[in-house]
Write the structure tokens for this entry.
Amino acid sequence: MNNLVISVDAMGGDKSPRVVIEGLAIAAKKNPDIRFLLFGDDAKVTPILNQHPDLKKVCEFRHTPEMVHNEDKPSQVIRNRNTSMYMAIDAVRKGEAQAVVSAGNTGALMAISKMVLKTITKIHRPAIVSIMPHRTGRYVMLDLGANTECSAINLAEFALMGDILARHALGITKPKVALLNIGTEEMKGKEEIRQAAQMIKNSKMNLDFRGYIEPHEIPNGVADVIVADGFTGNIALKATEGTARLVIRMVKDAIKGSFLAKLGLPFMMGVILKIKKTMDPRLYNGAMFVGLNGLSVKSHGGTDALGFSVAVGNAAMLVRQNFVPSIREEIEKIDLDELSQEAIYDVY
Amino acid sequence: MNNLVISVDAMGGDKSPRVVIEGLAIAAKKNPDIRFLLFGDDAKVTPILNQHPDLKKVCEFRHTPEMVHNEDKPSQVIRNRNTSMYMAIDAVRKGEAQAVVSAGNTGALMAISKMVLKTITKIHRPAIVSIMPHRTGRYVMLDLGANTECSAINLAEFALMGDILARHALGITKPKVALLNIGTEEMKGKEEIRQAAQMIKNSKMNLDFRGYIEPHEIPNGVADVIVADGFTGNIALKATEGTARLVIRMVKDAIKGSFLAKLGLPFMMGVILKIKKTMDPRLYNGAMFVGLNGLSVKSHGGTDALGFSVAVGNAAMLVRQNFVPSIREEIEKIDLDELSQEAIYDVY
């Protein structure tokens, strides 16, 4: 029997449970070391699961009478222990699984994950983090929306967790860490960012801190870990997604409107496929909630089976790399509250 | 003699005064109704100005012994009245010119403009605004960096000024106004954004308010005026610029690396030129400082003559359209402080 178990909310996402199960089938083929614990509505899940006999062999299914809906408020869903999402997360708390993946309501997934798995001792706030592409490689950015407002200590914790994630997930020995800001001069931006810079510079954090980074520099790969409060990170992420789509859309529209360009298309197919593959949002699916006693991964609700399988792959990789215990261990070595006091003193 | 006078800081920007003067030459040809008041170092400006006899006819040059440098701090530059930037701005205060254009240090230009021109009575904070492209047209976004932190009342003022700008500069009769946020549900985002939404919804503001907009929706043209605090606006702007450059760079790199694609290039030239023209940052050059008694326009420091001429064109257009008096007139009709009190009451 395999030791790597991932629990899955079969009912989350726009086309659940079909996309979820098809995604698991892809993930199972790619990762023969994973077993799945699947939670969902028997009547909907079983007929589809029966179409995937290979997956069924490594998948334990448990019926759940209810599910979390997109419009449900976090304050409601945390009280209902009978949803597929709740039970999938609870399996991690019980030690039956090492990570949970859901394509459901982000706010609900964060709220239940926080309540059930609890924040790691000494971490003040968990964060949402994604792996994203730059010109020559990949980087991680956090927080992407868990915390609308953040103190310096929160940002310093994100830097630390991002550093660990970049080492484990991107295989970078000494990740370059930077704080997202509107300028690179020391006095730029908000007070909490300047204080966080002071904290992160401290030798006790032991990070390769590169100071501030402006959003237009991210694609050049000057940093491996980009740290921001959840509001700013979410704005930067969505501006990036929207612009990438706009440019690609404009190229498509322009080609469609030109007879000559259509003639040239066959020559360009290789280039178009290459760009498509690098920019494919499915390959960057799977936002990770970090800072909790257990790993919770949020798949995009509108993704397809390939996208869902990538989110599952992220979860499995971080479990194999002992990501959660690493955070616990490294945070133990640092007294963030003390660093925070020093930083406030330094800024003034 | 022409009545439309624009004062210009000849010494601002990376390749000044050459780029500035060549930009004015282009602007003068396009806008025969403008006269220029040019401030700068005689030894550097006159030889270049002499190469443009047509421009020289509509240009009054005044020697200034000093200039603002990129590394100068706003707190220093506001004390020196002998710089080309200071004197160009001061010409607007004296009524010798109706607008000023500079490609110099943004912080310095804002600081001197605020001190010399003064904020319009009843406006709490000026803002930086730009005109930008979406899929089917153009929109304005503000604030882009003048105010790192903003209250609800500041955001509501930006909405009002953005609405006036969109009417005057984009010719939209009733612009759609939206607040930049990380979700579209009413309770999303920061408190000041929710309070601003309450204020802007008020019938006294008389705006076509469309609620919250997320950054990835901007390219779809769902709003003509995007309102944000200066930190968030600057992050969104730079993320947009960086991503557009990344995608274009990736396409270029992919074509360079493919023999077949190079063969197909001649078919694609029309499409490439069209995209280049729509995305050309020079065509969106000229960030406007709004909310002051006089118009101050910041050209990108690294732009070329065409880019600088676009910034000058923006300034001239807003002067012709009576933009500054319009703000003064419309802000008189509204008691923003009273609306703010009502909004705070409504949110709780």
